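Dear colleagues,

As part of the handover before I leave the project, I'm documenting each prediction I ran so the next person doesn't have to rerun anything. This entry is a single chain, and its sequence is reproduced below.
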Amino acid sequence: MNELQHDRILFLLVIGFFTCLITVLIGTEFDPYWHIKVGEWIVSHHEVPHTGIFSQTRENTPWIAHSWLSAVLMYGIFHIAGWPGLIVMAVVATTAGIFIMLGYLLEKLSPIRALCLTLLSYGMLLAHIMPRPHILALPVMTYWFVQMLRASEKYQAPPLYQALILILWANIHGSFLIGIAYACFFAFESVVTAPEGINRIVLSKQWAKFLAVSLLCLLVTPYGLQGVLLPLQLTGQSYSMSIISEWASPNFQQFQFLEILLYIILGFALTQKMQLPVLRLLLLIGLIHLSLKHGRYSSDLMALQVPLLFAAPLANHWHELVPDGKRFTLFSLIPANGKGKLLLISVLGCWLIYIFAYKDIEYKASKKINALLSNIKKADLPGNVFSHYNHGGYFIYQGLKPFIDSRAELYQDDYIKAYEEAEHLTGGEKPLVKLLNQYHIGWSFLPPETPAIAYFNLHPDWLKVFSNSCAVIHVRKGLWPPQVIADIKAGLEKQSGNDACKLDPE
């Protein structure tokens, strides 16, 4: 077996293993459910929403669905292939991002060293791979970063047509502004580090033209300038950013792969004599800062950008220069003979059979909550609901309007803060009572650990009708005759089946 065959087998085993691992671990949570319904609404109405559709309290409030194209795609896939189709979408998008990164790494480094950096990427990505719009943006973001990086290293601006990728990016996810930030950085790096013989004024004009076209491309959305400014509004919501779990700082009392990556970077910096260019170092520090401030950035940004950032400096440090004729490429992974192609098709077929026939994709908690809400929808409970942030997606999916959902840009800081204070009984029961009266709340649907449940349990105007490991339901007395409440309890008891739950006596 020659070296090329050895590398090819190693790559296939590693990529195959992590593809299977991702497939086994990935599942649903509350966000994909409402994205599907937004996509369905867009397809049904032949327009994008401009107000907070599906919200109980913010239905007429202006709202920009910045991931509208992802929602349409998710709905289309779900309509055709259900949850298995969305799982395939997420795994394919993740693998595409990895391959784009790997293609660049193999231009600079030996296959083994490129593969080691790829393993780090997989580790960083694992925590945030799910069927949501951000995963569709992953390969787009990686492609953009690679093109900016290549242009900077060649001391030239990218071709203008490459700016068109921003039209796609701006319509599938709100992370598109980071693309402009990357373009500005590499434009500056290209001009500042340009060697003698390159006219920096001409180079600056070329980059300025590219950046101008890029900014214009961001406006090619149904929302125009408002859509471009929306990410700035969201990141400016300091309270929301501090309490939403994926936007909060990573909790290092739990395992974080970010910690492993930081140890590797620190250990390498202290033991090797590699010099990272100052500008690249500043970008690395910026990425680390964002990842420590908002946990989701460790997978969304650092996972693929850090290996790309280190590739050329590492190649210079190790003096790697592989002749083009002997260079290992991603095309080397494609089987050359019929038996190899048949084997690859068989493996992919088994992978699809597992997803569509055997994988339990929806989380158990998601199934239970959806089943409860489906039964409640039939009961047609009067009055509005006081519901939990994490349950909003399930409410929308079941055709019920939640008190709040994960569209922080719709509800904004003041509303989210009032909700948090009410749910956690911050300052006593007054914040909760104020919201119950202000929004005419007739029933509540909250996780068992929610502090506000203590108020509903003790207050004489409220009656607990159901509780299990996923939700506790209270109704306001006086809105229904006793027989209606009894029927609701009976329906919930029948629906819960073998689930270990507690039904309270009348």
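Confidence is low (pLDDT under 50) at residues 498-506. The longest helix spans residues 68-108.

All the best with the project,
I.
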